[in-house]
TrEMBL record:
Organism field: Roseibium hamelinense
Family assignment from sequence similarity: Belongs to the bacterial solute-binding protein 9 family.
InterPro entries noted in UniProt: Bact_metal-bind_prot9, ZnuA-like
Origin organism lineage: Bacteria, Pseudomonadati, Pseudomonadota, Alphaproteobacteria, Hyphomicrobiales
A Pfam cross-reference name: ZnuA
Keywords: Ion transport, Signal, Transport, Zinc, Zinc transport
GO molecular function, one term: metal ion binding
Protein's UniProt name: High-affinity zinc uptake system protein ZnuA
Alphabetical GO biological process terms: zinc ion transport
């Protein structure tokens, strides 16, 4: 064979080999891109935990509001703004919890799919309480709650005032029908939560005060008359935003998260579905454990630092007597604080709960001259390690705090 033909054949084989290698590398890169996990940014630790459970084995979501930071007055750092800009999905509770995130989500996360969990169809939403004296308005006489019936938690007969919530979508919540929970004097027969995606709640004036007052972004000093919340900005979001403190809401939130993750990342949809099934089983176990933990202390009176626990109270029938603050960023008025102090003494309140996000000084002053003990409730899991296990630890930790502090000291 001529030498030039041999050289040409060798060159052709080299070219074919190089082309084949490039093709393999290109296909490999395309495959990797196809299976690359989405970048998911979450607002608060409980939402991050639920999302991390769904994404286990795929990727870790990013958390914006970490540690003891309060979502009510949160400010973005430059690195967090970059996280929003590069996100494929952002998951948050909504503007009523973190009003300062609303504008950045519209400008920085314009290319991301934004999931507002408070608008999830089927989610239970409860109205804000207008008065720190919950017992007088919501629960009547706690001693008449018939707690011997709580093995199945059918709450059908729990009248907590005169407001009806017949259509609050509770009938499928793990045996907690709550069909006739009345909470003030305004009827809420039309609160079907399937339409909350556009639910402004502007019409929900609870009692005599409208909820123009619950925006936590611009806290102002308290007024002495105790009516110090009328200049806030929640008239468009007049419901309690702490929805994750009901494990049944957490279940609905988890389903929403898994569904949307499957839509933007179909390559991992089966993983998300499997993880959701495991999480739902875990949430059922958590609810059963909490129910057993708080059963011995039902009917005991307690006061919370701020009105953040109503979803937990309703789910496990553990109503609070009152709150030191309605809003965590606004100091209570002198008159209201005096009434809370008197209530703690006169009703022999057993426990007053502080929160790790805020100084405990108000709690220490509130219990002076009373027999009340002091403990801590952590609605955000501020002191817990981030990750899939945080949500369960948060809910069970709250139940343990209630069970310990409200236990009969004798």
């Amino acid at each position: 064979m001529p030498r030039h033909q041999t050289k040409h054949s060798s060159h052709s084989r080299a070219l074919r080999s190089a082309f084949l290698a490039a093709t393999i590398l290109s296909a490999s890169a395309a495959g990797s891109a196809a299976h690359e996990a989405p970048k998911v940014v979450t607002s608060i630790k409980p939402v991050h935990s639920l999302t991390a459970s769904i994404m286990a084995g795929v990727a870790d979501p990013v958390l914006l509001i970490d540690g003891a930071a309060s979502p009510h007055g949160f400010s973005l750092k430059p690195s967090q703004a970059q996280d929003l800009q590069s996100a494929d999905m952002v998951i948050w509770v909504g503007p009523n919890l973190a009003p300062s995130l609303e504008k950045p989500l519209g400008t920085l996360a314009e290319n991301a799919k934004v999931i507002t969990l408070s608008q999830t169809p089927g989610i239970t939403q409860l109205p804000f309480r207008e008065d720190a004296n919950f017992e007088a308005h919501d629960h009547g006489d706690q001693d008449d709650h018939g707690h011997e019936e709580h093995a199945g938690h059918s709450h059908d007969d729990h009248a907590h005032g005169e407001e009806k919530h017949d259509d609050h979508g509770h009938e499928d919540h793990a045996g907690h029908s709550h069909d006739d929970h009345a909470h003030d004097e305004e009827k809420h027969d039309d609160h079907g939560h399937e339409d909350h995606a556009g639910h402004s709640h502007d019409e929900h004036a609870h009692g005599e005060d409208k909820h123009d007052d619950h925006g936590h972004a611009e806290a102002t000093p308290a007024k002495a008359d105790g009516h110090d919340h009328h200049d806030h900005s929640h008239h468009d979001h007049a419901f309690d935003p702490h929805i994750w403190l009901d494990p049944e809401n957490a279940r609905i939130m988890a389903r929403e998260i898994a569904e949307h993750l499957g839509e933007i990342d179909p390559d991992h949809a089966s993983v998300y579905a499997d993880n959701l099934a495991k999480l739902e089983t875990s949430l059922s176990d958590i609810s059963a454990k909490v129910d057993a933990m708080v059963a011995p202390v039902r009917g005991q009176r307690y006061v919370v630092f701020h009105d953040a626990y109503r979803y937990f109270e309703e789910r496990f029938d553990l109503p609070a007597t009152g709150a030191i603050n309605l809003s965590p960023e606004v100091a209570p008025g002198a008159e209201r604080f005096g009434k809370i102090q008197a209530k703690i003494r006169d009703l022999d309140v057993r426990c007053v709960f502080a929160e790790p996000q805020f100084e405990p000084k108000l709690v220490e002053v509130a219990i002076e001259g009373s027999n009340a003990k002091q403990a801590t409730l952590d609605p955000l899991g501020a002191t817990l390690e981030n990750g899939p296990d945080l949500y369960g630890e948060l809910i069970l930790g709250m139940a343990e705090s209630f069970g310990t502090c409200l236990a009969d000291p004798s």
